[in-house]
Automatic annotation (TrEMBL):
PROSITE patterns: UBIE_2. Pathway: Lipid metabolism; Phospholipid metabolism. Gene3D superfamilies: Vaccinia Virus protein VP39. It comes from Peribacillus deserti. It comes from the Bacteria. Keywords: Methyltransferase, S-adenosyl-L-methionine, Transferase. It holds the Pfam family Methyltransf_11. GO terms for biological process: methylation. Coiled coil: none annotated. This is SAM-dependent methyltransferase.
């Protein structure tokens, strides 16, 4: 079995690995109207950091879903420890166990790119209510990203595609979404200039986690790719509404 970048994040219990970190997510969520009747889905919840923040900050019902078994286990432990009423599901975003029009808001932080993008976006559309909001933060190819670099990035991260902003917007519209607004545009290089270049840190004490050669290699390679292609690889934060 190959050890993936997602496996490395799960092994070290890394939370908030997405561009912009939890701080960006907080700023985006603070612009939304969230009431006790609001149902929010954290799609690709990882260790549950964001779902935990939402549950503790807003008076709403929070759901979380992830397909990685170790991420699910870490999220479950977090929610139990923090005594949070988050409904957690171990399932793929391409085939979610929810009824049509179940949610008011879906949040996807650096998770859609790691799925079958077209299928996942179609599922987002299906489970969102009319007038519902999809908030995504995901890896984006800048126009100058060379095809060979795209191929290398796809191979390393195990993703189907590295999309440009226009390609992302086209997929959202093809799924049926009407209004697509870009909330933030940034390159990885810009992001690295504002944050520690050593990358995201594990939660808790790193000394308690045994060294894992494959996981360590994946994280170091991730840092190398981020630096090598930092000016031509970026991310977009989108706010998308369902008509």
């Amino acid at each position: 079995m190959n050890f993936s970048y997602q496996d490395a994040l799960a092994y070290y219990g890394i939370a908030g690995a997405h561009p912009g970190s939890l701080d960006l997510t907080k700023r985006i969520l603070q612009q939304e109207i969230i009431t006790p009747n609001t149902r929010i889905l954290d799609a690709g919840c990882g260790t549950g950091q964001t779902a935990s923040y939402i549950s503790k900050t807003f008076p709403c019902k929070v759901y979380a879903i992830d397909s990685h078994p170790e991420m699910i286990q870490r999220a479950k432990i977090r929610f139990i420890k923090e005594r949070l009423p988050v409904s957690l599901y171990h399932a793929a975003m391409e085939k979610m166990p929810f009824r049509n029009q179940s949610f008011d808001i879906i949040l996807a932080e650096s998770s859609t790119a790691f799925s079958n993008i077209t299928r996942a976006v179609s599922e987002y559309f299906r489970v969102l209510k009319r007038g519902g909001i999809l908030l995504t933060i995901d890896m984006t190819a800048e126009p100058e990203l060379h095809p060979a670099a795209r191929h290398e990035i796809k191979q390393f991260y195990g993703v189907h595609a590295v999309l440009t902003e226009k390609e992302w917007v086209d997929i959202f519209r093809q799924a049926g979404f009407k209004t697509v607004t870009t909330l933030k545009t940034s390159t990885i290089l810009d992001e690295l200039s504002n944050f520690n270049q050593s990358g995201p840190e594990p939660e808790g004490s790193q000394k308690l986690i045994p060294y894992h050669p494959a996981a360590d290699y994946m994280l170091k390679t991730h840092q190398k790719i981020s630096l090598q292609y930092g000016s031509s690889l970026g991310y977009r934060a989108f706010r998308i509404t369902k008509g």
